[in-house]
Amino acid sequence: MSHAAELLAAADAVLLDFDGPVTPLIPAPANLEVADAARAPLLAHGITLDERIGTTSDHLAVLRWAAANAPHVLAEVEALCDGAETAAASTAEPTHGAHDLLAKCRRSGKPVLIVSNNAEVAIRAYLERWSLASHVVAVIGRPTGRPDLMKPNTYTVDEALRLLRTEPNRAVFIGDSVSDVEVSRAVGMPCIGYAKTPRRGDELREAGADAVTADVAEIGATIPTI
Fold first, then answer.
1. Closest Cα partner for 80 from 112, 43, 128, 50?
2. What is the pLDDT of residues 116-126, one digit of tens each?
3. Cα–Cα distance between 35 and 86 in angstroms, integer?
4. What's the maximum distance between 2 C-alpha atoms anywhere in the chain?
5. Do residues 114 and 139 lie in contact, with contact meaning Cβ atoms separated by under 8 Å?
6. Which of 59, 73, 128, 211 has the fewest CB atoms within 10 Å, i.e. the most exposed one?
7. Is 226's pLDDT higher than 60?
8. Torsion of Cα atoms, 148 then 151 then 154 then 158, to 10°
9. Distance between CA atoms of 185 and 173, rounded to whole angstroms?
């Protein structure tokens, strides 16, 4: 049994990131198009962007920047991000092993909460499209109007633990970003890192992930299928 599978087997509940472990929601080159769309309202208002925000392919970085530097435009940027993510959810394909992992967790009695920096409306659209809504007990997306509360802020994870009424060490977080590892460590929760590339695997280990896997299917491999 892999260490990732051991961590899942020992957990009473699962906190699961969305973009990556469940689906590659906005892969390249679409991610740059979405970031450009997020930048558009800022540019339309004549706001000068620094080089990093002006060229990034991460629309969430643009959203964070808008909140900190142009709060009067935040609602417009946020609406475009929500819409782009929801549109992407209508065509996004599953990460290998993700849907099976959700089904196995449900059958084994391990509640799954999706805790994501993506919009709740987009996550629910994906779950409904693939008939997965019943496999998830709650969806906690980014707080509307407060991108500063996105991971690695502990706000969404704290909310998940409150809903579960469980201690952090009795759950496990599955995520693919350094911020997922950081928030897990901040609250004292074991973390399984999903790494789609060797470089990401190194980053997740460096950040302190308790286990790293390149295949989501590996995490739930020991959970009976029936």
1. 43
2. 999 999 999 99
3. 14
4. 58
5. yes
6. 128
7. no
8. 110
9. 10
